[in-house]
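Quick one, probably user error.
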């Protein structure tokens, strides 16, 4: 997949602490491109940043920003999954107690 960046300030957020962050609009564009890819393929997804304004040394920063974005999303989804699992287990126990009490 190729990601074309017209202006270098269109990809990275100007505000970040210890890791670069992708702007929400750029993240939505990447997600939109990923929608059409098949999950059945076991190949690694490679995003190449094609731009006249970004030099090779800056591309590592952009790659790290995209990687950080998806690592954060994965962590958030894992947290939601744990919460859903724990809630389901708790409600299952409550349901068993209610049925046994009847």
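Nope, works fine. Designed sequence:
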């Amino acid at each position: 997949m190729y990601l074309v960046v017209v202006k270098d300030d269109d990809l990275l957020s100007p505000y970040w602490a210890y890791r670069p962050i992708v702007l929400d609009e750029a993240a939505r564009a990447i997600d939109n491109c990923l929608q059409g890819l098949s999950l059945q393929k076991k190949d690694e997804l490679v995003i190449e940043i094609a731009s006249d304004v970004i030099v090779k040394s800056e591309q590592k920063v952009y790659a790290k920003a995209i990687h950080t974005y998806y690592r954060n999303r994965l962590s958030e989804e894992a947290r939601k999954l744990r919460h859903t699992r724990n809630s389901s287990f708790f409600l299952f126990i409550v349901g068993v107690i209610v049925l046994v009490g009847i």
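Residues 2-101 form one domain.
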